Amino acid sequence: MVDIVAEFLQGVQLFTRINSHESNNEAHTGALRGQFEKRAIAAGVEFTAQHVAAFQVNNGILEQAEIAGCDLIVMVTHGRSAVGEFLFGSVVRIIFAKSRRPVFVLH
User: Fold this and answer.
1) Which has the closest alpha carbon to 9: 20, 92, 17, 47?
2) pLDDT one-digit tens code per residue, 16-75
3) How far is CA 38 from CA 35, 42, 65, 69, 73, in A?
4) Model confidence, pTM
5) Concatenated DSSP letters of 15-49
6) How far apart, in whole angstroms, are the C-alpha atoms of residue 99 and residue 60?
């Protein structure tokens, strides 16, 4: 019985951490969207933003670009080393390979 209770409590703790992470993530992206929107308005550029939780970031970006009918996907690269890219992958590289839209990368 103790093992079942311990497993349940671990599950509750994990669920709490996930919810906390999602809340922090939403707050952070909201702040960033606000900054980008202000800069776009000041430059006279139309700006729309969408925050979408996706298991695979590259699929989330490509799906949203398709839904929004984007003319261009703009991305920023971390400039990882070959070892870093091997370990962590490259979302930019995957977007380049899969996108039917032009991709502009800032480094």
Assistant:
1) 17
2) 655 676 777 778 888 888 888 899 899 998 888 777 877 888 999 999 999 999 999 988
3) 5, 6, 21, 22, 19
4) 0.61
5) HHHHHHHHHHHHHHHHHHHHHHHHHHHHHT-----
6) 12
